[in-house]
Design goal:
A hairpin with a 2-residue loop joins strand 15 and strand 16. Helix 2 packs parallel to helix 4 and helix 5 crosses helix 6. By secondary structure, the protein is of the alpha+beta class. It folds into 3 domains: 89 residues, no CATH class; 81 residues, no CATH class; 98 residues, Golgi alpha-mannosidase II (Immunoglobulin-like, Sandwich). The radius of gyration is 24 Å and the shape is elongated. Strands 9-10-11-18-13 form a 5-stranded antiparallel β-sheet. Strands 12-17-14 form a 3-stranded antiparallel β-sheet. The protein is 24% helix and 21% strand. It is built from 7 helices and 18 strands.
């Protein structure tokens, strides 16, 4: 619960008084019953997305401080879900150390692939079009289409999925700001979707160029260079992997070929610019293509 004046109720100065006479276990029973109904009355369920848990601040019974596994009886709840729908995907918000299928960082972009104990895991970035999860008439921190597309690309380049939330109005409709953003993203996806769908983080042997993001389709064995800043005429892809493996390059927006030149001699120069050993240089149009984020498709 939220109060616009004081924030979350867990921080309310009178929280102890507010909880007098209340039994959290009654709500836990209700929660478990609702979950059982959802998982038995509506056929196969693909995803169960719980939200949200705070590890118990002082003691397992101090529910006023923050509700975690004790408040929800999470171990019991987890067993219910798995017994009723064994193939369901579960997120990581029951305050349990294991049992989840996907990690869910929210309202920030991880700097690198999400790992647990050093191992890469399935993850998704939980983001909004603006600063609010629900419809907020007066909220003005809406992200631009370019920012949203970059967020999508950045997430996929780190092996993640993007969950992008938009809240309907009281009429059950999406307002003009949301529709404009969706239309802008859809227009970009028309010609660039194959750099996103079925793609993941590029193999480590490919070094990401400056101001770019790489995505990779392992089934088609194709690499995609997303240019966040359009270079002047040349893009240098450094490393032996680019030199040895790239067979053909093209812009995704129009399918036009991009000429390539390989350098293996450390003393090589390109237009007076020293190019280190083992570099693949792409000759690009001087003018940036008329798309939000240009993408170069590399056939390996």
């Amino acid at each position: 619960m939220l109060d616009d004046r004081i924030g979350p109720y867990r921080d309310h100065p009178e929280r102890e008084k507010m909880n007098e006479g209340r039994d959290q276990m009654k709500y836990a029973d209700y929660l478990h019953g609702q979950v059982k109904e959802l998982l038995t009355e509506y056929g196969d369920i693909d995803i169960m997305w719980f939200d949200f848990s705070y590890p118990d601040a002082e003691s397992p019974e101090d529910f006023a401080q923050g509700k975690g596994r004790a408040a929800w009886r999470s171990e019991e709840l987890y067993k219910i879900v798995r017994s009723l729908q064994p193939d369901i995907i579960m997120n990581d918000r029951l305050d349990l150390d294991d049992g989840w299928d996907v990690k869910t960082p929210e309202q920030y972009q991880p700097r690198r692939r999400v790992t647990v104990e050093g191992r890469p895991v399935v993850w998704e970035a939980c983001q909004t079009f603006s600063g609010s999860w629900g419809y907020h008439r007066d909220e003005e921190s809406w992200k631009s289409v370019e920012q949203l597309i970059r967020m999508l690309v950045d997430t996929v380049s780190k092996g993640g999925n993007l969950l992008l939330n938009v809240g309907p109005t009281a009429r059950g409709e999406l307002d003009a700001r949301a529709l404009e953003s969706l239309e802008g993203m859809g227009e970009w996806m028309k010609r660039h979707d194959r750099s996103i769908y079925a793609c993941a983080q590029a193999p480590d042997r490919f070094k990401t160029p400056s101001d770019c993001r790489l995505t990779y389709n392992p089934d088609k064995n194709r690499l995609y260079v997303h240019a966040f800043a359009w270079p002047f005429k040349h893009l240098h892809l450094e490393g032996k992997a680019f030199c040895d493996e790239v067979k053909y390059a093209q812009l995704l927006n129009d399918g036009s070929e991009v000429l390539m030149e390989k350098f293996s001699d450390k003393s090589s120069h390109h237009g007076g610019d020293a190019v280190g050993g083992n570099a693949l240089t792409l000759t690009l149009p001087v003018k940036k293509p008329p798309v939000t984020v240009p993408v170069i498709e590399l056939f390996l």
